[in-house]
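This part of the workshop introduces the protein records we will be handling. A record pairs a protein's sequence with a compact description of its fold. Comparing a sequence with its tokens is the quickest way to learn the format. The record below serves as our worked example for the rest of this section:
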Amino acid sequence: MSGAGMKKDRGMRAFVGIAGAGLLSLALGGCLGLGGGKPPPSLFSLTAARTAAAGAEARGTSGTVLMVMEPETDRRLAVQRVPVQVSASEVAYLKDAMWVERPARLFRSLLAETLRAEGKGLVLEDDQSAAPAAVRLGGRLVEMGYDAQRQSAVVRYDALRTGPNGAVATRRFESVVPGVSARPESVAPALNRAANEVAAQVAAWMAG
């Protein structure tokens, strides 16, 4: 490897907080990876379990529109790599896997589609329109990745609902899918299931 390549590799390792060879002793079957290279064979996305019917129409005025905002994230989730929580203080990324786009954008679209399936009003995403909305749903995507210690896929979302007259409500939602091996073909459907469970929880909260 060239000197520049070695510097790049060291920089990536520092960014994700990996101690190098210390991770290898965790025996995760060679399923953790770092660094650049060719595109991974597995690209993860999210598919809504509940969708609005074809031809369904929703109308609304600025007083009835629900705007779903892209949630905030920390730096682990600000990239397209799939995070693996190795311990309380160590994070790696899943080998041979990557999100098709930023996890926060994927989750926002899944959440909006789940809310549209309720059919109770006009639901927009924050990059679709600048129209004023009666209610805004934002928050923070705290976790959407793999927990190596629990062998589980985890999605955790802190929702922030802002209503008319500035009324604000918050609530944490979480789904944990256990018994998942640290391989892309197992992690992908587990994360999709967990994300859909969280979206359904949020939809029920919004309806209430």
Remarks:
- The chain is about 25% helix and 30% strand.
- Residues 6-30 have pLDDT under 50 and may be disordered.
- The beta strands are 32-33, 42-44, 66-68, 83-87, 90-94, 97-99, 123-125, 135-147, 152-162, 168-177.
- Residues 184-207 form the longest helix (24 residues).
